[in-house]
């Protein structure tokens, strides 16, 4: 597994790097979905340290976790503990469905845009109805079942996930976390 361990305006020593590698290796080795690479970023937030971890699995799924603690090693351990909890849920779901993905997730290319926030200034009409694009990036849209999409959304800690439904192969679907705690699914291919 490849590791990329860095710090934002923090020097990361070899002792911390070896600690991170051993903790992630120990946590991930218990669960299916062989990890391919791990990205760990440390940053300082006031008097506390923030540790953000992202581990890519060979199945195409991504596990993300972050934690804030006053000790940099404690922040790492807390993030790895959260990641381990997510992987435990992932393993339980795989057992519940009694199926394992025979091949990696198929990914399609797409464009992702970040739009500038508008300033609400009361009754004023905007000069243009075109939003200002402040960033344009390439992204991928995975081809997953609905259950896998919900699992990926939860593993990534994201509020929403756009995916192609494996069963339909046309159009995109969306799963999202609702305010009531449930998961919503938008499927444009169903009529009703």
From TrEMBL:
Q: What is its main location?
A: cytoplasm
One Gene Ontology term, aspect cellular component? cytosolic small ribosomal subunit
- List, in alphabetical order, the Gene Ontology terms for molecular function in this entry: ribosomal small subunit binding
Localization (cell) = Cytoplasm
GO BP term (any one): negative regulation of translational elongation
- What CDD domains would the database entry show? RaiA
Every copy of the Sigma 54 modulation/S30EA ribosomal protein C-terminal domain together lies at 130-184
Q: Which UniProt keywords apply?
A: Cytoplasm, Translation regulation
Family classification? Belongs to the HPF/YfiA ribosome-associated protein family. Long HPF subfamily.
What NCBIfam families does this protein map onto? yfiA
Quote the subunit structure annotation.
Answer: Associates exclusively with 100S ribosomes, which are dimers of 70S ribosomes. Interacts with 100S ribosomes.
- Role summary: Required for dimerization of active 70S ribosomes into 100S ribosomes in stationary phase; 100S ribosomes are translationally inactive and sometimes present during exponential growth.
Task: Kindly provide the name given to this protein in its UniProt entry.
Answer: Ribosome hibernation promoting factor
Q: Which organism is it from?
A: Palleronia abyssalis
Taxonomy of the source species = Bacteria, Pseudomonadati, Pseudomonadota, Alphaproteobacteria, Rhodobacterales
